[in-house]
Amino acid sequence: MLLYWRREQYHEFTQCTEKGAVRIHCYWPNPLVEGYIIRIHKHFFSNCSLDRVVWLDPPEEKLLALILVPVFLTLAMIALVVWCSKRSDLLG
């Protein structure tokens, strides 16, 4: 919710700045206005990086399970198909 609130405020600020630049007959985007926006952003949103998700590698045990379970399931399915195909004369 807080991240959405910040984005919404920043969006409103950007729209307001753009309308102000057009009202005083400045072209948009204007490097001077853009510098102003960046200064405002640095002042009010200096901790934006704290909201980012930092991805970490899973523990080795979980990673091993995530790798080995699909491998063993695949091998089991292959073995089942081979076994059923050899027994097709009895099943069909």
Structure description:
The protein is an all-alpha fold and about 90 residues long. The protein is about 75% helix and about 0% strand. It has 4 helices and no strands. The protein has helices spanning about 1-25, 30-45, 60-85, 90. The radius of gyration is 29 Å and the shape is elongated. The mean pLDDT is about 75.
Average residue-wise pLDDT: 77
DSSP helical segment count: 4
Order of helices and strands: HHHH
Strand element count: 0
Give the overall silhouette.
elongated
The largest pleated sheet is described as: none
Task: Report the uncertain regions.
Answer: none
Report strand %.
Answer: under 5%
How far from one another are the termini?
A: 60 Å
- In quaternary terms, these chains amount to single chain
Q: How much is the radius of gyration in Å?
A: 29 Å
Topology of this structure?
Blueprint: H1 2-23, H2 31-44, H3 60-86, H4 88-91
Gist of the model:
The protein is 73% helix and 0% strand.
Key terms:
about 90 residues; mainly alpha; about 75% helix; about 0% strand
